[in-house]
Amino acid sequence: MSASLAKPRVAKLALAHRPTPIERYPALDALVGTEVWIKRDDATGGADAGNKIRKLEYLMAGAQQARAQVVITCGAVQSNHARATAIAARRLGMQPELFLREEADAGPRRVEGNLLLDTLLGAELTFIDRAAYGRRDALMAERAQRHADAGRRAFVIPEGGSNGLGALGYWDAMAETRAQLDAAAGELPDRFDAVLHACGSGGTAAGAVLGAGACEIASEVIAVAVCDDRAYFEARITSILTDAEGYFSAPPPRAALRVLDAYKGPAYGVPSSEQISFIRETARRTGLLLDPVYSGKALFALAQLPDKPARVLFIHTGGLPGLLAEHARFTHDA
Ligand SMILES: *Cc1c(COP(=O)(O)O)cnc(C)c1O
């Protein structure tokens, strides 16, 4: 069936290591309470690994077509997206500029994790508070205009790389999965009951809904919100989906979308003590490392879910650099 799949009609760069493996961690099934297969998108690259590089293959192709000299994006201080964008920009000879949200109660700024990599890359960093971050799109547009006034071409990428163009990266990941399942007859399932992943800005979910449906990976995508709520993400993901469908000559069939918003923990970037214990247990029993902002909360949600799908494809979306900035949460042994 893959041969007949409609492909998006738009330029794309080759930045990611692919295909990422689909792996079993048998000890994980007992921890989570169902059959889990892992799409290792934490292994899409080296320091640039994670889900954002798949979106950047499309977004940075757009930046190149615009002959951009500067790439502007935004995120939290420990944003994986901002770091991956900074790496891709340097790789392609562009200057990265990042608007980074700092929490008021964060204490002294620590140059570690993603922020260490941003700094090493010489990205221009503008730290803003939560209120200013609410105006991020206007701030980035103003910055781009200032470059234009000075005769420089700047390209703006929205939070998380989550627009229709970026979401195509997850349509791709599902098409890649289909090819893996077809090639490994007998060793991998032919399909799953659900695809599950952490959801922060909606682009991964939108692309997965399109790709999982069109490529018959699963009939349902479960997006585990790490911020905001279900109503917000349903509207956001629907809008990205409509945008993404515009890149196809005929819109591919969608999988069903289920947004879970009961597993965010205390706040964005703040795990509960149960989530920290789950991440620690998973590391010790299986060797699988999850981060406390995204992948740890997503797999924890599956472990807690009352009506678990029988066979799940969990997309490990990365986040290791963020984990390495969280020593304070993990130094106390439990
Ligand atoms: C950004 C990110 C996500 C969420 O993806 P969205 O497309 O923004 O919803 C999940 N996991 C990790 C590690 C991320 O960096």
Short description:
The protein is an alpha/beta fold and 334 residues long. The protein has helices at 26-32, 52-65, 80-91, 113-120, 130-133, 136-149, 164-183, 203-214, 230-245, 273-286, 295-304, 320-323, 327-330; strands at 22-24, 35-39, 70-76, 95-101, 124-128, 154-156, 194-199, 220-225, 256-260, 311-315.
Helix fraction, binned, reads 40-55%
User: What Rg, in angstroms, do the CA atoms define?
Assistant: 19 Å
How many strands, what sense, and barrel or not for the largest sheet? 6 strands, mixed
Q: Tell the overall outline.
A: globular
Task: Name the ligand types.
Answer: pyridoxal-5'-phosphate
Order of helices and strands: EHEHEHEHEHHEHEHEHEHHEHH
Strands in their spatial order, largest beta sheet = 1-2-10-7-8-9
Mean pLDDT, all residues: 96
Low-confidence parts:
none
How many β strands by DSSP?
A: 10
Distance between the termini: 49 Å
- Proportion of beta-strand residues: 15-25%
Supply the helix-strand structural class: alpha/beta
